[in-house]
Design brief:
single chain, 290 residues, mainly alpha, 13 helices
């Protein structure tokens, strides 16, 4: 669908003359609406799915000591892979220097569009993680606050056991509903991806790729090095899952990330792939992936 969308978009851009039908109805109308509609459907799933997954995950782990151990391991792993990602990115960027030769005078800038942000202190950063209004956090999609609130509920439900069985069943069943909704949205993924690519190519053609080719090459080279040297080798060493097996079983997640350019939209797919393709338990997947 990604490749077909690119071909269809190039045909629209170069072989069909500009007209109201082409620009306003097909590209900016049908293709844009369906493509962006698909992105919104994926994002629609994120907050309720993450919330329910974390409640069920922490509830399934049950023991707060074990939950703390899993939490620390997850945090250490993410900090380590993030540090390696930064190292790879800076190394590749400084080696190739994709910005050299760029004519900055040709780029129009406006002082009114430049925003500056003050550095947030460590105390404020910690306090911002704790929700003062969890309903507002859920509504605005403030994920760290949602995660904290979900973890607390999950731990309490596990601690209360049978006394909170009705509420525990509600979250478990609602999580099943969200996973089923994910499957429904994923069923239209090829159409959404086709329209996203066709709309982009139909509007800009291949010119935007040409003008940014050096930056794109550096970007994808960095991603490829991190993907192979960090994720594949680490997984192979720790679990015995071969690079090819990882690529084959995880392809649905990777292709969704590449085609939507949205990590939030990829969370539902990642949960499904981790559990169904790799056999990760619902508790660990539901706790770590969000």
């Amino acid at each position: 669908a990604l490749l077909l969308g690119a071909v269809f978009g190039i045909v629209l851009c170069y072989l069909i003359p500009d007209s109201k039908v082409k620009n306003d109805i097909i590209v900016e109308g049908i293709l844009y609406v369906i493509g962006q509609g698909f992105i919104r459907l994926m994002k629609m799933l994120v907050v309720p799915l993450v919330f329910c997954s974390l409640v069920c995950g922490s509830m399934a782990i049950g023991d707060t000591k074990k939950l703390g151990t899993v939490g620390v391991r997850t945090l250490v792993f993410y900090l380590a892979t993030t540090a390696l990602a930064v190292t790879v990115a800076l190394s590749v960027g400084n080696l190739i220097n994709p910005g050299i030769g760029l004519d900055m005078s040709a780029i129009k800038t406006s002082a009114s569009t430049v925003e500056t942000m003050e550095a947030t202190s460590l105390t404020d950063t910690i306090l911002n993680i704790i929700p003062d209004n969890p309903i507002n956090s859920l509504a605005s999609g403030t994920m760290l606050q949602v995660i904290v609130f979900a973890l607390i509920i999950g731990v309490i439900l596990a601690k209360m056991g049978e006394r909170a069985e009705t509420v525990a069943n509600f979250f478990s069943q609602f999580n099943d509903i969200m996973m089923e909704m994910t499957m429904m949205v994923m069923a239209v993924a090829p159409i959404g991806v086709f329209c996203l690519m066709a709309a982009a190519m139909g509007t800009y053609g291949i010119n935007f790729i040409g003008s940014m080719s050096k930056l794109l090459i550096v970007f994808y080279l960095g991603c490829a090095i991190h993907f192979v040297a960090v994720y594949m080798l680490f997984l192979w060493a720790m679990t015995g899952i071969t690079p090819w097996e990882f690529f084959k079983k995880g392809f649905e997640t990777f292709s969704m990330a590449i085609s939507t350019c949205s990590s939030a939209a990829t969370v539902p797919v990642n949960l499904k792939v981790a559990q169904e393709n790799f056999g990760v338990s619902e508790a660990i997947a539901g706790f770590s992936i969000p």
